Amino acid sequence: MGVLADVYEMLNTCNKCGGCHTACKTYKLTGSEEMSTRGRIQLIKAVADGKLEPNEEYEDAIMSCLLCGECAVTCPNGVHGNELVMAARRDLKLRKGIKPFAKSFALKTLASPKRLGMGFRLFGGMGKSVLNKIDGLDYFRGIDIKNFPTAKKPFLEQVPEKIKVQNPKHKVGFYVGCFLNHSLDQTAHSVVKVLAKNDCEVIIPKDQVCCGLPQYCYGDYETAKTNARKTIDTFLDKYSDAEVVLTACASCGSMLRHDYLKLFADEPSYLPKVKLFCDKVVEFSEYMAKIGVDQSKLHNSSPLTVTYHDPCHMVRGLKATKQPRELLQMIPRVDYKEMFEANRCCGAAGLIQAFYHEVSTDITDQKTQNIKDTNADLVATSCPACMLRLQGGINKAGQKQKVMHVADVMANAYED
Amino acid sequence: MLSQAVVKRLKEIVGERNVVTDKVGLLTYGYDGTLLSGEALGVVSPTTTEQVVEIVKLMNEQDIKLVPRGAGTNESGGTIPSAKSVVISFTKMTKIHEIDTENFVAVVEPGVINFDLQVELAKKNFYFPPDPSSFKASTIGGNLGECSGGPKCFKYGVTRDYMLGLEVVLPNGKVIQTGGRNFQSEPGYDLTRIIVGSEGILGLVTKVFVRILPIPRAKKTMLALYDKVEDASQTVADIVAAGIIPTTLELMDNLLINTTEDFTHAGLPRDAGAVLIIEVDGYPEDMDGQVKTIGEIASKIAKEFKVAQTAVEVDQIWTSRRSAFGSVARVRPSYGVNDITVPRSNFPKAIGGVLKVAKDFGVTIGVVAHAGDGNLHPLILFDQRNKEETETVHAAEQALCMMALDLEGTISGEHGIGLVKKKYLDKEFTPAAMEAFRKIKRSFDPSNRFNPGKIIDL
């Protein structure tokens, strides 16, 4: 009860006006009230009031929330539906643990670099060769698994700890994150390239771990804290010369900058250090826009129509929307087209795409159509999870657009 | 509880996933925008007219009541499940069949969200004038069930005025069509108008022919700021008396200015006693003249009068106005909303009446009003957990209704009667008129199958 008691006033502040219906994609695409923010809030309140015993249907309502955060910006009363769902997940965790699949995947695998690396290598090797032999299994729960990229070797094993440049103006600590390390290593290389081209020395700590977001999202604050502490201590103690902690994953960025503060709210002695760390966190596009990019060094020979997808953690987490668009438009011959609902969730939403694949597939299909309507050649974004989800959706729809990180688009515009 | 046999048959009609019988599901279909709640035996979400017919037949056979529901954003308890009822939810009937710009008609299913229709219409440079504040969430079916208004009512009228025809499933399971594409009404009774505003007690609407209009070529949005809410109400009366019809004449008092400002940061002055949002539309060349006349009238009393300069500014003003209801929980967690309406000329008196009720009962009332059509939304703020306070609020609500009736007004302009205002209906209508209501209900629905207990008791 404790967790829900803490948020009770916010639960009670929802006056059921239904304004959040428009914000909630899981409601819009199912038409089911229990899949709406208002529905979820009323269910959580019923549990808090002792009128409802958490059961399987309740867990589904709570676990199927995308945590996209759109409801929080839409609610005229300032009720943050996503935070209430987080509290409910924490409450569920304390009551009865976490669903077996979420447990094995989110908690154990992601939390341990060894297991994660092994998992990706097994999937990339044996897993894919098996998959390729199964006809019709191109998509597992809407996820384009056959085309799911895996790094031959983790990015962290491919690069030295320090990337030096001739006239260093800045020292940047690079928090790579699981996706860029194990799956989209090329994007990690792009980040390093763009930083180096802009006179940044890049420091890449080898012993970095998962930021803890997946565990945090499923209410496992203990594991999340262990990983968070390790991340904070690594960057602040061992690599204190890094001016900033840069990430190219909006989700990691939002966790590192905002959620760490919430996570350690109950540890006042450690909190000042957390705050120091959070203030150093910066997302790739934010940083490039801040230090300024020399436009004259960017080259592009053929016309390119580009659109941008705002990851949830970028637009509502880090609240950065202008910077990536500005960077993209600095590239010569880029024709920028805004898509409809660019700032709405792509359907990936962490593990939702696996657990609640039907609704997440519908969300992705809608996004894919919005992309198609722009006639863009290329979709840029700022989160590896979105990149994979969008590319999968585009491939499935038989469309041609290529999905790239803003860092990839920029890296291509620099001559080697 | 529904018997397994009935659940099985419902699932055969609409498919497994469109039937809800578990506690969690039922709980989320047990409330609306009011403080009331109930629990249905089940929730069924049809996707076609044929399915609706089959459901009605089954419910007749099993003698189970049916409670229709759209998005459940209503403010009168009209969708609260009654005892031993099944909720029929129209949120999965969301097709826009046709947008006919030559004949100014759109044909839609009842679950289409008002805003989604506006988005599709805007692509063809058309719009659907009725736009209740809840329009981003509420459905066309719900709008017509309650006969919703909206900021544009002053010039353009309410939902009723945009309903050309309906396909309706009657309580006996038969399907009728009233009206259609024609602008002239059909011969005989205007059945469309009997169904619109009947809150689902007479028939279940499965298809709607709505009238649409081309988007006006130009519009101007103005703000007039006042020290006192009474002053604002005088400008409203003056504008009406001068024979000018703005699209919109919306009023918000100081309390609402502040709660909405907390959310939107639109830049409304927090110290103003009241603000009037005035909008005019039409041909571009008409704009300056209208703005000038309104400015002259408003400036006689207003402490400031200004014209919004950018589209962003206009958007922010409207976001503020539309979030008025939603935002008040920033002050107190519960609210009771009223929609008393008086003849326009009595509007200043009604504002005075609201202030008097607030003082007499010692309650906090925020006032937002579609001032142009005399429709007031006094929002009484309280905490439902405090029993004593809640009773005072109910007494104050009754006083508001009586005050409106004394001013030749009505207890409900656009939210419907539902459960919340049922007890005041016989204060507005004579016993003979009440009996006429009952007779109409009985002739449509002799077994009281559809939404029983709403509007009137039989």
Keywords:
heterodimer, A: 416 residues, alpha/beta, Fumarate Reductase Iron-sulfur Protein, Chain B, domain 2, Rossmann fold, 5-stranded mixed sheet, 4-stranded parallel sheet, 23 helices, 9% strand, globular, B: 458 residues, alpha+beta, Uridine Diphospho-n-acetylenolpyruvylglucosamine Reductase, domain 2, Uridine Diphospho-n-acetylenolpyruvylglucosamine Reductase, domain 3, Alpha-Beta Plaits, 7-stranded antiparallel sheet, 5-stranded antiparallel sheet, 36% helix
What does this structure look like?
Chain A has 416 residues and is α/β, with parallel strands linked by helices. Chain A has helices spanning 2-6, 8-13, 25-30, 37-48, 56-63, 70-74, 81-96, 100-111, 113-133, 155-158, 178-182, 185-197, 213-217, 221-238, 250-263, 271-280, 284-291, 312-317, 322-330, 352-355, 357-373, 384-396, 406-412, and strands spanning 139-140, 143-144, 162-163, 170-175, 200-203, 244-247, 281-283, 304-308, 334-336, 378-381, 402-405. Chain A is globular. Chain B has 458 residues and is an alpha+beta fold. Among the domains of chain B are: 4-89, Uridine Diphospho-n-acetylenolpyruvylglucosamine Reductase, domain 2 (2-Layer Sandwich), CATH 3.30.43.10; 96-214, Uridine Diphospho-n-acetylenolpyruvylglucosamine Reductase, domain 3 (2-Layer Sandwich), CATH 3.30.465; 216-328, 2-Layer Sandwich (Alpha-Beta Plaits). Chain B contains 16 helices and 18 strands. In chain B, the strands form four sheets. In chain B, strands 15-12-14-13-17-18-16 form a seven-stranded antiparallel beta sheet, sandwiched between helices. A five-stranded antiparallel beta sheet of chain B has the order 5-6-10-8-9. In chain B, helix 13 (347-361) packs antiparallel against helix 14 (387-406). Chain B is globular, with a radius of gyration of 22 Å. The interface between A and B is large, with 31 and 42 residues.
